[in-house]
Amino acid sequence: MVASDAFGIAAGAVAEYATPKVPPTGDHMTTFDDREQGFEKKFALDQEQEFKAGARRNRMLGEWAAGLMGLQGERVTEYSRAVVKSDLELPGDEDVLRKVFEDLKGSGVQVSEGEVRMKMAELLAQAREQVKSGQ
Questions:
Q1: Can you give the pTM of this predicted structure?
Q2: 3-class DSSP state of 1
Q3: In this predicted model, what pLDDT tens digit does every residue of 101-131 receive, in sequence order?
Q4: Residue 18, helix vs strand vs coil
Q5: Phi, psi of 10 (to 5 degrees)
Q6: Can you give the pLDDT at residue 17?
Q7: What is the distance between the alpha carbons of residues 124 and 120, in angstroms, rounded to a whole number?
Q8: Cα–Cα dist 45/50, whole Å
Q9: What is the span of the domain harbouring residue 108?
């Protein structure tokens, strides 16, 4: 005969209901873990695309500025590369702005810092679209 309490429940049955069921751990992924990994992958992809768009914008900005300064042929390519490299000096866009604006001023091109900033914003939008579309 199995021992039971006052309600007629066997002693072993109480332990079964009292112990919470814990999902197995280890190699099993939860929905939260899946979502977290998904967000991390999206963040990494977004950062990669933003880096590519920034570099593309800088190249296009260099080509634009080279045209204003009257550079041609291989000198346009060299100048564009120099603008892309200038972005690696400091975080943000100020180093690129400073380089292009000072170069334009030094070449006698009448352009304001605000015009260069506007061109940078315009070209960044174009570059983002190009990177997004895989061009």
A1: 0.69
A2: coil
A3: 999 999 999 999 999 999 999 999 999 999 9
A4: helix
A5: -65, 150
A6: 55
A7: 6
A8: 9
A9: 31-132
Q: Domain count for the chain, please give it.
A: 1
Backbone angles phi, psi at 21, to 5 degrees: -85, 120
Residue type, 49: Q
CA of 102: how far to CAs of 23, 32, 45, 83, 94, in Å? 63, 50, 34, 12, 12
Nearest of 120, 109, 6 to residue 62 by alpha carbon: 120
Residue 12 in domain: no
Q: How many CA atoms lie within 13 A of 62 on its CB side?
A: 22
Residue 103, domain CATH? 1.10.790.20
Q: 41-74 burial, b for 16+ CB within 10 Å, e for fewer?
A: eeeeeeeeeeeebbbbbbbbbbbbbbeebebeee
